[in-house]
Protein backbone atom coordinates (compact mmCIF):
# COMPACT_ATOMS: atom_id res chain seq x y z
CA UNK A 1 0.00 0.00 0.00
CA UNK A 2 1.22 3.45 -0.88
CA UNK A 3 1.43 6.35 1.55
CA UNK A 4 -1.46 8.80 1.93
CA UNK A 5 -0.89 12.10 3.72
CA UNK A 6 -3.29 14.79 4.82
CA UNK A 7 -3.27 17.54 7.41
CA UNK A 8 -5.56 20.09 9.04
CA UNK A 9 -5.35 22.60 11.85
CA UNK A 10 -7.32 22.49 15.09
CA UNK A 11 -6.64 25.51 17.26
CA UNK A 12 -2.85 25.77 17.45
CA UNK A 13 -2.31 22.10 16.66
CA UNK A 14 -1.61 20.75 13.18
CA UNK A 15 -2.86 17.19 12.83
CA UNK A 16 -1.05 15.13 10.21
CA UNK A 17 -2.99 12.06 9.07
CA UNK A 18 -0.78 9.26 7.76
CA UNK A 19 -2.08 6.11 6.08
CA UNK A 20 -0.17 3.22 4.51
CA UNK A 21 3.49 2.26 4.60
CA UNK A 22 6.36 4.52 5.70
CA UNK A 23 9.60 3.08 4.37
CA UNK A 24 12.72 4.05 2.46
CA UNK A 25 10.60 4.67 -0.66
CA UNK A 26 7.73 6.68 0.82
CA UNK A 27 9.38 8.41 3.81
CA UNK A 28 10.74 11.32 1.72
CA UNK A 29 7.14 12.46 1.09
CA UNK A 30 6.44 12.59 4.82
CA UNK A 31 9.73 14.45 5.35
CA UNK A 32 8.76 17.03 2.73
CA UNK A 33 5.35 17.54 4.32
CA UNK A 34 6.81 18.03 7.81
CA UNK A 35 9.43 20.47 6.50
CA UNK A 36 6.77 22.37 4.58
CA UNK A 37 4.50 22.61 7.62
CA UNK A 38 7.31 23.93 9.80
CA UNK A 39 8.42 26.39 7.12
CA UNK A 40 4.86 27.73 7.08
CA UNK A 41 4.91 28.33 10.82
CA UNK A 42 3.19 25.18 12.11
CA UNK A 43 5.29 24.29 15.15
CA UNK A 44 2.91 22.03 17.08
CA UNK A 45 2.42 18.84 15.10
CA UNK A 46 0.40 15.75 15.99
CA UNK A 47 1.05 12.80 13.68
CA UNK A 48 -1.83 10.32 13.67
CA UNK A 49 -0.35 6.89 12.88
CA UNK A 50 -3.44 4.79 13.54
CA UNK A 51 -3.73 3.89 9.83
CA UNK A 52 -0.02 3.20 9.31
CA UNK A 53 0.52 -0.41 8.20
CA UNK A 54 4.29 -0.39 8.24
CA UNK A 55 7.01 1.82 9.72
CA UNK A 56 10.75 1.27 9.44
CA UNK A 57 13.83 3.11 10.68
CA UNK A 58 13.72 5.47 7.71
CA UNK A 59 10.31 6.61 8.92
CA UNK A 60 11.64 6.95 12.45
CA UNK A 61 14.42 9.14 11.10
CA UNK A 62 11.88 11.40 9.39
CA UNK A 63 9.87 11.75 12.61
CA UNK A 64 13.02 12.53 14.60
CA UNK A 65 14.01 15.08 11.96
CA UNK A 66 10.59 16.69 12.28
CA UNK A 67 10.89 16.76 16.04
CA UNK A 68 14.26 18.50 15.82
CA UNK A 69 12.80 21.12 13.49
CA UNK A 70 9.80 21.98 15.68
CA UNK A 71 11.92 21.96 18.85
CA UNK A 72 14.10 24.62 17.22
CA UNK A 73 10.97 26.81 17.34
CA UNK A 74 9.94 25.70 20.85
CA UNK A 75 7.33 23.51 19.22
CA UNK A 76 6.27 19.90 19.62
CA UNK A 77 5.79 16.78 17.53
CA UNK A 78 3.70 14.08 19.15
CA UNK A 79 2.19 10.86 17.93
CA UNK A 80 -1.09 8.99 18.10
CA UNK A 81 -0.50 5.26 17.95
CA UNK A 82 -2.02 2.20 19.60
CA UNK A 83 -0.84 -0.49 17.17
CA UNK A 84 1.52 -2.85 18.93
CA UNK A 85 3.54 -3.66 15.80
CA UNK A 86 4.26 0.04 15.28
CA UNK A 87 4.87 0.78 18.96
CA UNK A 88 7.37 -2.08 19.09
CA UNK A 89 9.85 -0.30 16.82
CA UNK A 90 9.67 2.80 19.06
CA UNK A 91 10.40 0.63 22.08
CA UNK A 92 13.30 -1.22 20.45
CA UNK A 93 14.98 2.04 19.52
CA UNK A 94 14.25 3.78 22.81
CA UNK A 95 12.23 6.49 21.07
CA UNK A 96 9.27 6.08 23.43
CA UNK A 97 11.36 8.36 25.68
CA UNK A 98 11.68 10.98 22.97
CA UNK A 99 8.14 11.21 21.59
CA UNK A 100 4.88 11.84 23.35
CA UNK A 101 2.69 8.93 22.23
CA UNK A 102 -1.07 9.07 22.79
CA UNK A 103 -3.91 6.62 22.35
CA UNK A 104 -6.17 9.04 20.48
CA UNK A 105 -6.23 12.46 18.89
CA UNK A 106 -8.57 13.68 21.62
CA UNK A 107 -6.21 12.47 24.34
CA UNK A 108 -3.29 14.24 22.66
CA UNK A 109 -5.31 17.44 22.24
CA UNK A 110 -6.30 17.36 25.89
CA UNK A 111 -2.68 16.88 27.00
CA UNK A 112 -1.53 19.59 24.62
CA UNK A 113 -4.13 21.97 26.03
CA UNK A 114 -2.90 21.37 29.57
CA UNK A 115 0.61 22.35 28.53
CA UNK A 116 -0.55 25.78 27.45
CA UNK B 1 17.03 -27.36 2.24
CA UNK B 2 15.06 -25.18 -0.16
CA UNK B 3 16.49 -21.83 -1.18
CA UNK B 4 15.01 -18.82 -2.93
CA UNK B 5 17.37 -16.15 -4.21
CA UNK B 6 16.36 -12.65 -5.18
CA UNK B 7 18.50 -9.89 -6.64
CA UNK B 8 17.31 -6.35 -7.17
CA UNK B 9 18.64 -2.97 -8.25
CA UNK B 10 19.44 -0.50 -5.48
CA UNK B 11 16.13 1.35 -5.74
CA UNK B 12 13.97 2.18 -2.69
CA UNK B 13 10.85 1.05 -4.55
CA UNK B 14 12.14 -2.54 -4.65
CA UNK B 15 12.48 -2.83 -0.87
CA UNK B 16 8.74 -3.33 -0.48
CA UNK B 17 8.84 -6.17 -3.01
CA UNK B 18 11.67 -7.81 -1.08
CA UNK B 19 9.68 -7.52 2.16
CA UNK B 20 6.63 -9.11 0.58
CA UNK B 21 8.62 -12.00 -0.91
CA UNK B 22 10.37 -12.68 2.39
CA UNK B 23 7.09 -12.64 4.32
CA UNK B 24 5.42 -14.99 1.82
CA UNK B 25 8.26 -17.50 2.00
CA UNK B 26 8.45 -17.22 5.79
CA UNK B 27 4.75 -18.10 5.99
CA UNK B 28 5.22 -21.03 3.62
CA UNK B 29 8.22 -22.24 5.61
CA UNK B 30 6.14 -22.38 8.78
CA UNK B 31 7.20 -19.28 10.67
CA UNK B 32 4.49 -18.47 13.21
CA UNK B 33 1.99 -15.82 12.19
CA UNK B 34 2.91 -13.77 15.26
CA UNK B 35 6.51 -13.51 13.97
CA UNK B 36 5.72 -12.51 10.40
CA UNK B 37 5.61 -8.80 11.19
CA UNK B 38 9.09 -9.12 12.68
CA UNK B 39 10.35 -10.92 9.57
CA UNK B 40 8.82 -8.25 7.34
CA UNK B 41 10.35 -5.39 9.31
CA UNK B 42 13.78 -6.97 9.81
CA UNK B 43 14.16 -7.93 6.13
CA UNK B 44 12.93 -4.48 5.13
CA UNK B 45 15.49 -2.85 7.40
CA UNK B 46 18.33 -4.96 6.03
CA UNK B 47 17.30 -4.22 2.43
CA UNK B 48 16.82 -0.48 3.11
CA UNK B 49 20.27 -0.32 4.62
CA UNK B 50 21.76 -2.14 1.63
CA UNK B 51 19.96 0.14 -0.84
CA UNK B 52 21.23 3.27 0.90
CA UNK B 53 24.78 1.87 1.01
CA UNK B 54 24.71 0.94 -2.69
CA UNK B 55 23.28 4.29 -3.71
CA UNK B 56 26.21 5.93 -1.92
CA UNK B 57 28.96 3.63 -3.17
CA UNK B 58 27.92 1.41 -6.09
CA UNK B 59 24.46 2.22 -7.46
CA UNK B 60 24.85 -0.07 -10.46
CA UNK B 61 25.45 -3.21 -8.37
CA UNK B 62 22.49 -5.41 -7.41
CA UNK B 63 21.61 -6.45 -3.85
CA UNK B 64 21.12 -10.14 -3.14
CA UNK B 65 18.80 -11.90 -0.72
CA UNK B 66 18.88 -15.59 0.03
CA UNK B 67 15.93 -17.14 1.84
CA UNK B 68 16.14 -20.75 2.97
CA UNK B 69 14.66 -23.26 5.35
CA UNK B 70 17.42 -25.01 7.19
CA UNK B 71 16.92 -27.52 10.02
CA UNK B 72 13.82 -25.95 11.46
CA UNK B 73 14.93 -22.37 10.89
CA UNK B 74 13.88 -19.81 8.31
CA UNK B 75 17.09 -18.03 7.41
CA UNK B 76 17.51 -14.80 5.44
CA UNK B 77 20.82 -13.37 4.25
CA UNK B 78 20.98 -9.89 2.72
CA UNK B 79 24.27 -9.15 0.97
CA UNK B 80 25.57 -5.88 -0.38
CA UNK B 81 28.82 -4.80 -2.04
CA UNK B 82 29.28 -1.41 -0.39
CA UNK B 83 32.27 -0.86 1.93
CA UNK B 84 31.09 -0.93 5.52
CA UNK B 85 31.94 1.19 8.54
CA UNK B 86 31.58 -0.12 12.05
CA UNK B 87 27.87 -0.20 12.75
CA UNK B 88 27.39 -0.79 16.47
CA UNK B 89 25.78 2.05 18.40
CA UNK B 90 24.51 2.61 21.90
CA UNK B 91 20.81 3.06 22.59
CA UNK B 92 19.54 6.63 22.21
CA UNK B 93 18.91 8.58 25.37
CA UNK B 94 17.86 11.98 24.16
CA UNK B 95 17.14 13.94 21.02
CA UNK B 96 20.53 15.60 20.93
CA UNK B 97 22.22 12.23 20.45
CA UNK B 98 20.16 11.43 17.39
CA UNK B 99 22.55 12.72 14.75
CA UNK B 100 22.07 11.85 11.09
CA UNK B 101 24.87 9.28 11.26
CA UNK B 102 23.24 7.71 14.26
CA UNK B 103 19.91 7.51 12.47
CA UNK B 104 21.51 5.85 9.46
CA UNK B 105 22.51 2.98 11.73
CA UNK B 106 19.11 2.62 13.34
CA UNK B 107 18.25 -0.20 10.96
CA UNK B 108 20.80 -2.56 12.47
CA UNK B 109 19.55 -1.80 15.99
CA UNK B 110 16.02 -2.56 14.85
CA UNK B 111 17.06 -5.85 13.21
CA UNK B 112 18.88 -6.93 16.35
CA UNK B 113 15.77 -6.16 18.35
CA UNK B 114 13.52 -8.15 16.04
CA UNK B 115 15.26 -11.22 14.71
CA UNK B 116 15.55 -14.31 16.83
CA UNK B 117 19.15 -14.78 15.71
CA UNK B 118 21.28 -12.16 13.90
CA UNK B 119 24.83 -12.03 12.62
CA UNK B 120 26.29 -9.01 10.85
CA UNK B 121 29.47 -9.40 8.82
CA UNK B 122 30.77 -5.98 7.75
CA UNK B 123 33.84 -5.83 5.52
CA UNK B 124 35.49 -3.43 3.07
CA UNK B 125 33.88 -5.43 0.24
CA UNK B 126 30.36 -5.32 1.63
CA UNK B 127 28.10 -6.42 4.44
CA UNK B 128 26.21 -9.67 4.94
CA UNK B 129 23.34 -9.66 7.40
CA UNK B 130 22.12 -13.12 8.31
CA UNK B 131 19.03 -13.51 10.44
CA UNK B 132 16.78 -16.43 11.26
CA UNK B 133 13.56 -17.41 12.98
CA UNK B 134 12.12 -20.75 14.07
CA UNK B 135 10.07 -22.53 11.40
CA UNK B 136 8.08 -25.73 11.46
CA UNK B 137 7.60 -26.78 7.81
CA UNK B 138 9.77 -27.52 4.82
CA UNK B 139 9.28 -24.99 2.02
Automatic annotation (TrEMBL), chain A:
Q: Which organism is it from?
A: Nonomuraea polychroma
Q: PANTHER family recorded for this chain?
A: ANTI-SIGMA FACTOR ANTAGONIST TM_1081-RELATED (PTHR33495:SF2), ANTI-SIGMA FACTOR ANTAGONIST TM_1081-RELATED-RELATED (PTHR33495)
Enumerate the NCBIfam families for this protein: ant_ant_sig
* InterPro entries assigned to the protein according to its UniProt record, in alphabetical order: Anti-sigma_ant (IPR003658), STAS_dom (IPR002645), STAS_dom_sf (IPR036513)
Lineage at the top is: Bacteria, Bacillati, Actinomycetota, Actinomycetes, Streptosporangiales
One term of GO molecular function: anti-sigma factor antagonist activity
Q: Which residue intervals define the domain STAS in the entry?
A: 3-112
Spell out the protein name for this chain: Anti-sigma factor antagonist
Which family does the record assign? Belongs to the anti-sigma-factor antagonist family.
User: Quick check: keyword Phosphoprotein in the entry?
Assistant: yes
State the function annotated in the UniProt record: Positive regulator of sigma-B activity. Non-phosphorylated RsbV binds to RsbW, preventing its association with sigma-B. When phosphorylated, releases RsbW, which is then free to complex with and inactivate sigma-B.
Name the keywords, alphabetized.
Answer: Phosphoprotein
The superkingdom of the source organism is Bacteria
The question of whether Phosphoprotein is a record keyword is answered with yes
TrEMBL record, chain B:
Q: Where is the Histidine kinase/HSP90-like ATPase domain?
A: 8-133
State the name under which the record lists this protein.
Anti-sigma regulatory factor (Ser/Thr protein kinase)
Q: Name one Pfam family in it.
A: HATPase_c_2
What molecular function terms (GO) are annotated for this protein? Answer: protein serine/threonine kinase activity
Report the transmembrane regions from the record: none
Q: PANTHER family, from UniProt?
A: ANTI-SIGMA-F FACTOR RSBW, ANTI-SIGMA-F FACTOR RSBW-RELATED
Asked whether the keyword Transmembrane helix is assigned, the reply is: no
Asked whether the UniProt record includes tRNA-binding among its keywords, one would answer: no
Determine the domain of life of the protein's source: Bacteria
List, alphabetically, the InterPro entries matched.
Anti-sigma-factor_SerPK, HATPase_C_sf, HATPase_dom
Question: Sorted alphabetically, which keywords does the UniProt record give?
Answer: Kinase, Serine/threonine-protein kinase, Transferase
Q: Which organism is it from?
A: Nonomuraea jiangxiensis
Amino acid sequence: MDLKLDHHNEDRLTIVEVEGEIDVYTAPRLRELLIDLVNKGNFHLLVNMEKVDFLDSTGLGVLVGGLKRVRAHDGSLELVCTQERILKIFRITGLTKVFGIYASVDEAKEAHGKDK
Amino acid sequence: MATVELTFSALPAHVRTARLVATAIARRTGVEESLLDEVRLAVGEACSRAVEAHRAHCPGEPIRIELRDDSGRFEVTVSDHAPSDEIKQEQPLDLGMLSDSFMSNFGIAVIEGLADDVEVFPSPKGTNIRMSWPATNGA
